[in-house]
């Protein structure tokens, strides 16, 4: 999919019926400013909104895209609007999460199975929040602490808001790697009735519901069974 898909509107009316909206600081929301494809910026994330030709009525389809060329217009489908984390103003989207994982795996020799990312809220023992990466490894990294550091560095390079929050730990502490046994995600999906081709593990969410369920699946308290910090 790296080459993208060509988008050729069949008519002027059709080209106006698909509008796009960039994410706001509170995520992908329906009140974001809408643009036609004539106004897009290349390599910037957008959500797709289906509208009437005049724009009086519209709704978000739930897909996120990134445009890679203008003539012809080409795009890459990058994820879903509900897959992001912005608990602390970092506004990290699924595409950045996946790119950071690729970098960390390549640099530490790891091969992941399933994974998901959730916010970790401040507590009595930790004044700042951060991110928990819950990962199953087919091949574990050579150095798990280095793996967490590579995730952190890659996200900082990809996302300005994340980099700002991570500077001197002013808004976020280092990400935490929670390594889960192989099969944990599979069992959780089966038990929740989500096993099958029509369901996929959400790669990132803006709450801890999935993280808590996965930790409960392995009988672990929050922060177990294996914790590796990127600090």
Give the strand tally.
11
Characterize the overall form: globular
Radius of gyration: 19 Å
Q: How much beta, percentage-wise?
A: 25-35%
Domain unit count: 2
Unreliable stretches covering 5 or more consecutive residues: 6-18
| Helix-and-strand structural type | alpha+beta
Average pLDDT works out at 81
The CA-CA distance between the termini, in Å, is 34 Å
> Major sheet, described briefly?
5 strands, antiparallel
Please list the strands of the largest sheet in the order they lie side by side.
1-5-4-3-2
User: Which assembly state applies to the chains in this document?
Assistant: single chain
Helix content: 25-40%
Number of discrete helical segments? 6
SSE string, helix = H, strand = E?
A: EHEEEEEEHEEHHEHHE
């Amino acid at each position: 999919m790296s080459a993208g898909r060509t988008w050729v509107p069949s008519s002027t009316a059709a080209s106006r019926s698909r509008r796009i909206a960039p994410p706001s600081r509170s995520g992908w929301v329906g009140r974001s400013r809408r643009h036609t494809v004539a106004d897009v910026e290349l390599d910037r994330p957008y959500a797709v909104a289906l509208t009437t030709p005049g724009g009086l009525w519209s709704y978000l389809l739930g897909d996120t895209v990134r445009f890679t060329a203008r003539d012809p217009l080409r795009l890459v489908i990058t994820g879903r609007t509900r897959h992001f984390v912005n608990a602390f103003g970092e506004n990290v989207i699924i595409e950045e999460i996946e790119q950071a994982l690729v970098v960390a795996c390549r640099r530490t020799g790891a091969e992941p199975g399933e994974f998901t990312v959730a916010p970790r809220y401040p507590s009595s023992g930790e004044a700042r929040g951060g991110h928990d990466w819950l990962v199953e490894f087919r091949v574990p990294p050579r150095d798990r602490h280095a793996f967490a550091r590579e995730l952190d560095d890659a996200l900082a390079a990809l996302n300005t808001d994340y980099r700002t929050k991570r500077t001197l730990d002013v808004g976020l502490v280092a990400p935490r790697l929670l390594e889960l046994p192989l099969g944990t995600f599979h069992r959780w999906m089966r038990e929740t009735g989500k096993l099958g081709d029509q369901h996929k593990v959400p790669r990132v969410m803006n709450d801890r519901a999935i993280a808590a369920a996965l930790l409960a699946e392995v009988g672990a308290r929050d922060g177990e069974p294996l914790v590796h910090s990127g600090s």
